[in-house]
Write a structure and sequence with these properties.
Layout: H1 3-21, E1 24-29, H2 35-47, E2 50-54, H3 57-67, E3 80-85, H4 91-102, E4 106-112, E5 115-118, H5 119-126, H6 131-170
Helix pairs in contact: 1-3, 2-4, 4-5
Length: 171
């Protein structure tokens, strides 16, 4: 077999590995992006702990077929790049959503836990806060009733102490 064929087989295995590890994969149409904006995008993606690659659609299709993901067969056409998010679901989508205003890129579709999501779902995903922020908000909501009860009970005791102090200083 030729060396080129072996290189493509290795590349398909690499693509397959990235899709199997990724929590979210965002497919981006990068047609018309400038080199400056592409460099900015790649730096921001890297800073978010994600990866951004341009692959041939045929190789991506082969890798997805080997993983058993058939929902993207008719969508893999044109100039597409893939942003992989390995640590969380929202990072890649949020970086690309922010950059789509400046650079000429658009989110086309994606895979979220190996399931197809369209561009509107990706936009909604991009606008979600990070996992840590959501957990902090949930803990704040769970803590609020107990905190409010403590304030209420403390207010009654404080009122009694102030009343007794007022009586004591009056005499």
């Amino acid at each position: 077999m030729s060396a080129n064929f072996e290189n493509k087989k290795k590349l398909v295995e690499d693509i397959k590995d990235k899709f199997s590890r990724a929590k979210c994969a965002v497919f981006v149409d990068y047609k018309g992006i400038t080199v400056e904006n592409d460099t900015k995008l790649r730096n921001q993606i890297r800073a978010a702990g994600c990866e951004y690659h341009v692959y041939k659609n045929r190789l991506v299709k082969l890798a997805l077929d080997e993983l058993g993901i058939k929902c993207l067969d008719d969508k893999l056409e044109g100039t597409l790049a893939v942003a992989f998010s390995f640590n969380g679901e929202t990072e890649a989508a949020s970086v690309i959503d922010k950059m789509s205003e400046d650079a000429q890129i658009t989110m086309k579709f994606g895979l979220l836990d190996k399931a197809y999501v369209d561009d509107t779902a990706l936009k909604a995903l991009a606008n979600l806060p990070s996992k840590e922020v959501l957990i902090a908000k949930l803990l704040g909501l769970l803590q609020a009733p107990a905190r409010n009860l403590c304030y209420c009970l403390n207010g009654t005791v404080t009122g009694l102490v102030r009343c007794l102090n007022g009586i004591a200083t009056k005499n």
